[in-house]
């Protein structure tokens, strides 16, 4: 039986959350069994790092377009780093989404690539090129390619000295790092795990990934992990537009999970699974359990927070109709939490329940498609999720 965590929801001092009459603020809490060892372990580890500034805590937030857009997870990330500025870890796993045409990038870093690359996403029925934890890749083909990356969010100093480039090349193309007007080879290469590790003498906030492909050669970039030599919190966001749970099961997850070794995974996958006329809740549950098992094989003590689907509408014959599958998905998330010893953050209930998306849209918090939020809405969701976690501490 799931019970509510020990602390009631309240706004922390750093919150910019505006009060809206249709939001059920009293529901902003984590629901979990108080005897859950994985949840206890995570919160104890988080308390220790927050109090002492020692140790590392890795949080991975996985989802679809809500996460790829970056505003929602970055708001949680910023709130954590501002709450415990003495415990800012590395920026963590990122992906250069906008290296490919028509692929949107989070705002806290900019990406530029003038060469044409081949985009592969886990939503493709049969992905042509390899995929890792990020669920997305870009492939340089037959030509030298340079992907420029620049940190733009100055609220937190994410200067890096340790960069891991993740990728594959059948022709053994070795990427280089462009910085300080030089091209630097990897400090070492882990060929078994497809990692190229760069250790730098000083911190940087911008660099180029150089893929020196020539005719007949390819290099598939599957992710970039940014670290520093500081202990503390790292919040990794993994999102692919349109992704459902089975799409992440197509990816090679184990090696990247071993790199991050997450202490907590926040699951925000499900809005695309439930966007069907007939929603198979049994398959949804079983696919999620398979995904959870793949993570627990790497870290048996990893804690889970399941974010229920937001209230949404489906477009049927040019008209929007309320998607009642959100209620069915919500029930599955509570079952998943019970089966895995995880927690539920009931976004559906917090929003105001069925048909609440209309009120969010009228308040300027949701977009006209009645599925996605505006930047203000995503920031509000980030504040609420942070506060639900913070109140458990």
Q: What is the fourth-level CATH superfamily of the largest domain?
A: SGNH hydrolase
Strand content: 25-35%
Helix content: 25-40%
- Tell me the overall shape: globular
Assign the CATH topology of the largest domain: Rossmann fold
Low-confidence stretches: 1-15
Structural class given helices, strands, pairing? Answer: alpha+beta
Radius of gyration: 21 Å
Q: Please report the total strand number as a whole number.
A: 21
Q: Class of the largest domain in CATH? A: Alpha Beta
Output the number of helix runs: 10
Across the major sheet, the strand order is 1-2-21-18-17-3-16
Tally the structural domains.
Answer: 2
What is the CA-CA span between the terminal residues?
22 Å
Describe this structure in words.
The protein is of the alpha+beta class and 393 residues long. The protein has two domains: 245 residues, Rossmann fold, CATH 3.40.50; 131 residues, Jelly Rolls. It has ten helices and 21 strands. Strands 1-2-21-18-17-3-16 form a seven-stranded mixed β-sheet, sandwiched between helices. Helix 3 crosses helix 10. The longest helix has 16 residues. The two termini are 22 Å apart.
């Amino acid at each position: 039986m799931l019970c509510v965590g020990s602390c009631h929801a309240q706004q922390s001092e750093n919150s910019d959350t505006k009060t809206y009459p249709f939001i059920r603020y009293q529901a902003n809490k984590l629901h979990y069994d108080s005897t859950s060892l994985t949840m206890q372990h995570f919160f104890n580890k988080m308390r220790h790092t927050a109090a002492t500034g020692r140790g590392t805590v890795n949080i991975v937030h996985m989802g679809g377009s809500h996460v790829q857009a970056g505003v929602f997870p970055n708001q949680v990330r910023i709130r954590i780093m501002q709450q415990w500025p003495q415990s800012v870890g590395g920026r963590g796993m990122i992906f250069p989404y906008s290296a490919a045409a028509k692929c949107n990038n989070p705002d806290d870093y900019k990406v530029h690539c003038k060469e044409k690359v081949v985009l592969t996403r886990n939503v493709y029925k049969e992905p042509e090129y390899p995929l890792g934890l990020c669920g997305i890749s870009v492939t340089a083909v037959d030509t030298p390619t340079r992907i420029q990356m620049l940190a733009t969010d100055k609220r937190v100093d994410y200067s890096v000295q340790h960069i891991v480039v993740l990728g594959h090349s059948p022709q053994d193309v070795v990427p280089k790092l462009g910085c300080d007007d030089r091209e630097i080879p990897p400090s070492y290469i882990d060929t078994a795990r497809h990692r190229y590790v760069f250790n730098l003498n000083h911190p940087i906030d911008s660099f180029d990934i150089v893929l020196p492909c020539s005719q007949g050669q390819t290099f598939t970039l599957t992710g970039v992990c940014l670290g520093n030599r500081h202990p503390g919190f790292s919040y990794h966001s993994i999102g692919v537009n349109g992704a459902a749970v089975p799409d992440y099961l197509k990816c090679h997850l184990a090696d990247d999970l071993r790199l991050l070794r997450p202490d907590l995974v926040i699951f925000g996958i499900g809005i695309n699974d439930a966007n069907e006329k007939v929603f198979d809740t049994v398959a949804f549950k079983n696919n999620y359990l398979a995904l959870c098992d793949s993570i627990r094989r790497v870290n048996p003590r990893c804690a889970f927070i399941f974010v229920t689907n937001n209230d949404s509408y489906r477009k049927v014959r040019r008209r929007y109709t309320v998607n009642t599958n959100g209620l069915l998905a919500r029930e599955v998330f509570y079952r998943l939490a019970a089966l895995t010893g995880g927690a539920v953050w009931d976004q559906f209930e917090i929003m105001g329940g069925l048909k609440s998306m209309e009120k969010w849209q009228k308040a300027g918090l949701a977009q006209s498609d009645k599925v996605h939020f505006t930047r203000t809405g995503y920031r509000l969701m980030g504040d609420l999720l942070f506060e639900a976690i913070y109140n458990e501490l």
